[in-house]
Amino acid sequence: MPLTNIPTSETPTRSHRRWKHVAAAAGIGALTLTALVAGPALAGHGDVSLAGSNFEIDTDANLRVDHPAPPSLDWANVDQIDQPEEFQGAQDDSFGQGSKEDTAVPTVIDGSIPPNKSDLLQFGLYLEKAAAGDFLHLYWQRVQDPTGTTNMDFEFNKSETLSTNGVTPVRTAGDLLIQYDLANGGTEPELFLSRWVDTGPKSLCEAANSTPCWGVRDNLTDAGDATGSINTSDIPAAESDGLGAMDPRTFGEATVDFDVLGGEGCVAFGSAYLKSRSSDSFTAAMKDFIAPVETGLNNCGALAIEKTKKHAADGPGDHPHAGVVFTITGGDLPAGTTRTTDANGEACVAGIEAGSYTVTEAVPAGYAVTSANPQNGTVVENTTCEDATPVVFSNMPLTNITVSVDSQVDGGTASTIDCDAAADPPFEATTNAVGDGSLTKSDLQPDTYVCTIVIDP
C-alpha cells in the first residue's frame, strides 16, 4: 500500500477529515528530526503542553482552542488523520483467545466489547512542526467510561505487509508501542514507549520470557518527553470537532516529542492502530482495536542508483546493466555497505537519513566508466526507491586491436606501424629483423582509429 504523509503543520488550508495538512508556526517543507526540547518545562499557552509545542493539551482534555494568543493549535483547528472504528455493537471486531501485547499475530474475532472495558470509537494523529522541533499528537475516543483499570496503546509499524490475521501488519524490529496508561482511578495519563525486539535475551523484554517481544519500556512522562490528559467534564457536540458529544473520561489526548521516537536514526512508520487492554497490566489480554491507518510517517529517504551501458548487439542507445556492485558511504551507513544492480540496472538503499552520500562503482571488467566515479548522491526526506531521483552511472564496452605485418621473405621488407601517433604517442611499432611485427592496443573505447603501415624494402 502506498505511503501518504501524516498531516503536518505545513499547509495553510483545512479540509476535514483525512490526509490534509494545516498551517502552524515555523513549518518547513520536509519532515525533519530536531534536537530535543531542553527540560520538561510546560508551555505557557496550555495547561500541560510540552515546552516548544504550540498544541494545547489541557488538564481537562478537549478539542477547542482555549488560548488563541499566542497562536495555538488544537484538534479543532488542525486537520489530523482520523481513523474511526469500522463496526460497533454485536459486529464489533476485537482481539480474542487471550491475545496479549507480545502476541506477534493477535487473533481477531467478532463480538461486542464488555461494558466494563474500553470500547473504542476513534483515534487520531497529527504531526506538528514547530520552531523548537517536531511533536506527534495523539487522541483516542471510547464509548463509555469503563469500570476498573484500562489502557490504550498506539502501535506504529514499519512494514506494509499484513500478518496472517489479515488486519495487523507484520512486526519488525524497531516498531513502536506508545502506551497510554490511566492511573489515579483512570484520570491521570502516564505514557510509556517500547520497541519491538526481534532477537536477543529475555532481559530485553518488558514482560515476555523470550524474544520476539516488546522491549523494556521507557517512562516518557517522567522523562518530560510526553504529556497527556483525559476529559473530566462533558464535551458538547458543538465543541467536539465532529466526534459527537462525549461523557467524562471518554476522550484522551497526548503529545510525544518526536525525537524520542526516532532514536538515533530516521523514522519511517507506514501505519498505526489503536487497541485497548483489559487492565493496566502489560500482560493483560487485549480487547478492542481500531484497524490500522496509513500514516506515511517518514523522514527517511532513499538513495537510488541507475546503471546503463552501451551494447551493440542490443541496438543503439543505453541499456540496463545488471550485476554491477556499488559501495555507498555517508550518514550512519555501516562500512562496506554495497548494492548490486538488478535486471533493470537499478539498485537502492532505502530507509536512510537525509543528506549527502558517496556512491562508487566497481567497474566491471571489459568496461570503462563514461560518467563521474565516484559520485555524490543527495537523499531527500520522505522518498522511496520508487520516487527518489537516481544517481546515474554509464559504462562503455572496451575493445583490443592488433595490427600485424608479416614479411613473406625473411628480412625482405622493413615496416613501421603508426596508429594515431599524434593523439596517442607512442602508438607505433617497427618490424623485427625478418620483417615481422605487430602493434596491440588494449582497452579502447568505441571510436575511429586510423593506422598507417609503411612497408619499406
Protein model, in words:
This protein has one helix at about 260; strands at about 80-85, 95, 105-110, 120-130, 135-140, 150-155, 175-185, 190-195, 215, 220, 225-230, 250-255, 270-275, 285-300, 300-310, 320, 325-330, 340, 345-350, 355-360, 365-370, 375-380, 390-395, 400-405, 415-420, 430, 435-445, 450-455. It folds into three domains: about 75-295, no CATH class; about 300-395, Immunoglobulin-like, CATH 2.60.40; about 400-455. Mean pLDDT is about 85; it is low at about 1-5 and about 10-40. It is elongated. It is mostly beta strands and about 450 residues long.
Structure, briefly:
The chain is mainly β and 457 residues long.
Structural class: mainly beta
Spans where pLDDT lies below 50 across 5 or more residues: 1-5, 9-42
User: What is the molecular shape?
Assistant: elongated
**Run of helices and strands:** EEEEEEEEEEEEHEEEEEEEEEEEEEEEE
Please summarize the sheet with the most strands: 7 strands, antiparallel
Beginning-to-end CA distance, first to last residue:
79 Å
